[in-house]
Write a structure and sequence with these properties.
By secondary structure, this protein is mainly beta. The chain is built from 2 helices and 28 strands.
């Protein structure tokens, strides 16, 4: 009996070790996918993009997203550098909403409001690496996460995935998917790369030229929560229907740009924005399936020590976060972000990089 018992104990520990070893992606790691001189690095902490390397007009390869040198710095980050955002990206006013007659009180993490999913949003959890393909014509990585019922106050279990894939001609394809398993719930997935296509350490983005394919914005109250209005950008500093330098009118806006644009196109995959940096020659063209995009000019990035010790300041980057409208759960006139069991959520973003030589 004692020998059998000892054998069972040994077998138990062996199985335990095997099980622990088989849970790929549970430990925090850094994963690179590469296609020639075009590459990105991702960590499964927050499903975060930590670098995007591509050449400039002279063939010099540089990193075009802000970030840090260590995972611990990402853990302590408050700017969401490169992170996946959810269960609901952007703000929910009063950290509360009512759905199907039930009132839900969420975890507030920005005053009385919820920002980017709360204190433990998807940017602050360890995702599972479910697929990692480094060979072939389109290398990619897929990360998954199970968000339990009640997490940060949200109803229902949700299965989430994000895939980062490199495609031909300097294309980065990002696909977010989600399934509500047992309750209707709001889902608005996005991510938060801080782009400086001149190079992460090249200074501010004020001279970079931006075009945004949206003729309306969703105005904000004093707490940066949408009022529910949808207002035209014509004759305002928010008008980027024609290309303008980021800094051409930024001083007319308190703090800088940080607002949701309602995209004009009704196509499934719609044109979002184009960014051009004359010095490097790099161009970034963005298309997405989401109805909106948050244009943000790193207004609150102040004396932030980043990669290689470079210190980031306000205007060091710009964000173009494709998304459902902020606080949509509290504004019936906004496109709905509610996902019911049996309905699949998909949000695709395509970044196409190119060179413009003068």
């Amino acid at each position: 009996m004692s020998s059998n018992f000892s054998l069972l104990i040994c077998l138990f520990f062996i199985l335990h070790l095997l099980a622990a070893a088989s849970v790929t992606g549970r430990k925090i790691g850094i994963y690179e996918i590469k296609k020639g001189d075009f590459s990105i690095k991702v960590t499964n902490y927050g499903a975060t993009i930590i670098s995007v390397f591509l050449p400039d007009k002279n063939g010099k390869v540089g990193d075009v997203v802000l970030g840090y040198d260590t995972i611990n710095e990402y853990k302590n980050d408050t700017s969401y550098f490169g992170a996946a955002l959810g269960r609901v990206a952007n703000r929910i006013g009063g950290a509360q909403f009512t759905l199907n007659g039930t009132h839900y009180k969420l975890v507030a993490n920005e005053g009385v409001n919820m920002l980017h999913g709360g204190l433990k949003g998807f940017s602050k959890v360890v995702w599972k690496v479910s697929k990692f393909v480094i060979d072939g014509p389109c290398p990619y990585i897929t990360l998954t996460y199970h968000s339990p019922d009640g997490q940060e106050g949200f109803p229902g279990d949700v299965l989430v995935s994000v895939t980062y894939k490199l495609e031909d001609h300097y294309k980065l394809n990002v696909v977010f998917k989600a399934k509500a398993l047992n309750k209707a719930t709001p889902i608005n997935l996005s991510h938060h790369p801080y782009w400086n296509i001149g190079g992460h350490n090249s200074g501010d983005v004020l001279s970079q030229v931006v075009q945004i394919f949206a003729s309306h914005i969703t105005p904000l109250d004093k707490q940066h929560v949408p009022t529910g209005e949808i207002s035209p950008v014509k004759n305002t500093p928010y008008d980027f229907l024609k290309p303008h330098k980021v800094g051409s009118r930024i001083d007319k806006i308190q703090d800088g740009y940080d607002i949701n644009y309602a995209l004009d196109s009704t196509k499934k995959m719609k044109h979002v924005a184009i960014v051009y940096d004359k010095k490097s020659g790099r161009v970034m063209d963005i298309k997405a399936t989401a109805p909106g995009v948050q244009f943000y000019t790193a207004n609150f990035v102040i004396n932030t020590k980043g990669k290689g010790g470079y210190v980031y300041q306000p205007r060091a980057a710009l964000c173009l976060e494709t998304q459902g409208f902020p606080d949509a759960v509290n504004h019936p006139n906004f496109p709905s972000t509610i996902v019911t069991p049996g309905k699949n959520y998909v949000h695709s973003v395509l970044y196409t990089f190119s060179i413009k030589k003068n």
